[in-house]
Design goal:
Layout lengths: L1 E6 L7 H13 L7 E6 L10 H10 L2 E6 L5 H8 L5 E4 L7 H10 L2 E4 L1 H6 L11 H7 L2 E4 L4 H4 L3 H10 L5 H14 L4 H4 L1
Parallel strand pairs: 1-2, 2-3, 3-4, 4-5, 5-6
């Protein structure tokens, strides 16, 4: 499990709750909690304003993910990387910055891309125009995810079908992406293998 700190707007609004979320993650490490996430609508408040969440996570050596590069551009991904994350929730807007794409490849950063969510939230105009395949073909470690299955009314099989039918990906591409997912999992290597 990842425990999620939330971005609701001004970063100070729920600061106490976000810090408590990180501390709770540490307390439950031996009960299946493997790290923390910063989730929410990044367009309401810059990702950089939540550095305090990751300074707290650093105290406990917690793994982390950050939702970035979805409703905001590549700078939000750069901000997330400054927190020491190796996984970015969404991240598809990284494709707007060739230097950032190169950095993602060189550092082995995994992007947790959610195509249907991106279309529904209008952060990409269509499945066909979505940069998932371009990022994959460039060598970025992208994965396919559902984001919020309840709100989107989808499952992972739906996303796989969309990737093949509308986004130009092959079954083997999806297998490679699943391997990327396993390699990026926050768990012991023997369990990942």
């Amino acid at each position: 499990l990842l425990l999620c700190a939330m971005s609701y707007g001004d970063a100070s609004l729920n600061r106490e709750e976000n810090v408590e979320t990180v501390r709770t993650a540490d307390r439950f490490r031996d009960k299946g909690v493997v790290g923390v996430d910063l989730a929410g609508y990044e367009g309401m408040c810059p990702v950089a304003d939540f550095a305090y969440v990751f300074r707290e996570a650093d105290k406990y050596g917690l793994a982390r993910t950050v939702h970035a590069g979805d409703s905001m551009g590549p700078q939000s991904v750069r901000d997330a990387l400054s927190f020491g994350t190796k996984r970015i929730g969404h991240g598809h807007r990284s494709s707007d910055d060739p230097a950032l794409v190169k950095k993602l490849i060189e550092e082995g950063i995994t992007l947790e891309v959610c195509p249907t969510s991106n279309i529904q939230c209008q952060t990409q105009p269509s499945y066909e125009a979505h940069p998932l395949k371009r990022l994959f073909d460039a060598g970025v470690r992208v994965t396919v995810n559902t984001d919020n299955m309840v709100l989107s009314n989808i499952d992972l099989d739906h996303e796989y079908d969309i990737c093949i039918e509308k986004m130009g990906l092959s079954r083997n591409d999806l297998i490679r992406m699943n391997i990327y997912s396993a390699e990026a999992a926050f768990m012991a290597a023997d369990k990942r293998d």
